[in-house]
Amino acid sequence: MMARPNRTAPGLASALTALLMLVVPSTGSGQAFPNKPVRLTVAYPPGGSTDVGARIVAAIAEKQLGQPIVVVNKGGAGGQVGWTELSRQRADGYSIGFINLPAFNTVILDPERKAAFTLNDFVPVINQVLDPGIIWVKSDSPYKTLKDLIEAARKAPGKISAGTTGILSDDHLAILMMEEAAPGAAFRIVHFDGGAPQLTAVLGGHLNVAFDNVGTVFRRIKSGELRALAVMDTQRSRFIPDVPTMPELGYPTVISNSTRGIAAPKGTPAPVVNKLALVLKQAMDDPEHVKKMDDAGLTLRIMIGEEYAKYYRELHAKAAKYTEWARSRPHK
Predict the structure, then answer these.
(1) Which of 29, 47, 221, 271 has the highest CB neighbour count under 10 A?
(2) What are phi and psi of 192, to 5 degrees?
């Protein structure tokens, strides 16, 4: 949804370490934090990419934290069930959870969802993944390049079917950005409940083009089963380095991704947030974590402190525009 942020500055972890040497976070009872297991909520069912990343980092971070980090899946309503529950937990550091942007933002921004939480009900702790958006077709598709697709969408507006993984998902917003950046091009947007049925529709010849994320389809692209037309990021993906980016193809504003990070309920003490951020960053920098995330096709983009807080706020503001636009459009 926005330009690729820089990785955390190398000195930030050492600065946090110094802070933690001066301030020992404690619970309301005065005991040092943590003195019991930490619950890490994933607002989606087991087995998805967020769940995979959560379990990889939790297994490493709990060794440094000194207490178990228990991953709890609380799926439902596109993440809304899990995020609602997280917002209602005690703000003591023992209940944290993954937030998926911009899906998290659109739940808040869409009045029909009647979200029981707002952006201000959470404190961003650390971001783990930025999974770039990707535009892809079946390998035998007549659209060999993005230019082919755009020209066809201009010649027959509303005829070419473009699939997303859900209404108001990052993929949905990406199609709207594409239409805005390529005047005259218009797609017939078709929504699916996740990536699996979307893939089935493309392979079955029922869907012309799909918008999704690199981590979901890169293996099928490498095998030749699918063809990628463009990566919606400012840099090429190391998983499919031959695929050009949208800026390379003349569309610098079409930047879309799904970020997955960890947040805590509003009011969680700053020293506790700082300790969690430090421990989780050390775990994410661990070679074991890096390798396992690479094997899963998940691009690390670690952000903590003000960098992540700024990204959290700015993405919400950007998502507002496209959420309103999406709500005004008919969809299947």
Answers:
(1) 221
(2) -120, 160
